């Protein structure tokens, strides 16, 4: 039987209980239900100096983030809309993936990436989702066909973090399914390639 795929969620809001993190947790819970091993790096975990390619070595938060990304088969990114685009917290974290440029799977390559954005309205949510997907492409990741844009003025999450809006829940569930399905397919493909090399 194939080993469980690993999915890491990266949450770009520093506000505890943010809609972005609630949505991200729903996606990760669904991925876990589908058999993935999941982890979350979010908010305070990402507070670190601005990435500077001239500086050798990474702070501990960046080392943890990079280890999580390097070992992941799938990634889920969640960002609030800040002035129409991705939060600085998340963008800085993604800039640190420059340190993975010489990996066997550089940056986000070979990984399924689901993107979730949250705005205080639709315009910011949608522009942020598009920006997130552009960044993923620049990092050679495979965005899932479905991205999810949420409006925090209407997004329904209860105090327990449960999603109370069936349509949003359905979208988050579908995106989790696409991340896990692609991650499993790529994992199987790598295993086949490795077998062929050793045959
Ligand atoms: C600095 C800053 C800039 C923001 N810019 C936008 C924006 O351009 N468009 C928008 O819809 N919401 C904007 N917002 C609202 C956030 O996207 C809001 O926090 C979002 O709805 C996420 O809610 P959450 O904190 O519950 O995750 C901004 C908030 C902050 C703090």
UniProtKB/TrEMBL annotation:
In the Enzyme Commission scheme, what number(s) does this protein have? 1.-.-.-
Broadest EC class?
A: oxidoreductase
Which superkingdom does the taxonomy of this entry point to? Answer: Bacteria
Its keywords, alphabetically, are:
Oxidoreductase
| Pfam families assigned | FMN_red
Q: Which residues form the signal peptide?
A: none
What Gene Ontology molecular function terms does this protein carry?
oxidoreductase activity
- Annotated NADPH-dependent FMN reductase-like domain residues: 5-153
Q: Which PANTHER family match?
A: CHROMATE REDUCTASE (PTHR30543), NAD(P)H-DEPENDENT FMN REDUCTASE LOT6 (PTHR30543:SF21)
Return the protein name. NAD(P)H-dependent oxidoreductase
């Amino acid at each position: 039987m194939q080993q469980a795929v690993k999915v890491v969620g990266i949450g770009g809001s520093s506000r505890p209980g943010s809609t972005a993190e609630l949505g991200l947790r729903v996606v990760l819970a669904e991925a876990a239900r589908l058999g993935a091993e999941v982890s979350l790096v979010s908010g305070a975990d990402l507070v670190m100096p601005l990435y500077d390619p001239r500086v050798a070595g990474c702070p501990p938060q960046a080392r943890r983030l990079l280890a999580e990304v390097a070992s992941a088969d799938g990634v889920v990114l969640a960002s609030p809309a800040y002035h129409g685009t991705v939060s600085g917290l998340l963008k800085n974290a993604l800039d640190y993936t420059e340190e993975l440029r010489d990996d066997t799977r550089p940056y986000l390559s070979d990984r399924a990436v689901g993107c979730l954005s949250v705005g205080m309205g639709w315009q910011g949510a949608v522009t942020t989702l598009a920006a997130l997907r552009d960044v993923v492409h620049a990092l050679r990741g495979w965005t899932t066909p479905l991205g999810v844009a949420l409006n925090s003025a209407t997004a329904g999450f209860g105090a327990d973090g449960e999603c109370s809006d069936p349509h949003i829940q359905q979208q988050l569930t579908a995106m989790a399914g696409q991340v896990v399905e692609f991650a499993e397919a790529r994992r199987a493909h790598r295993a086949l390639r490795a077998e062929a090399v050793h045959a």
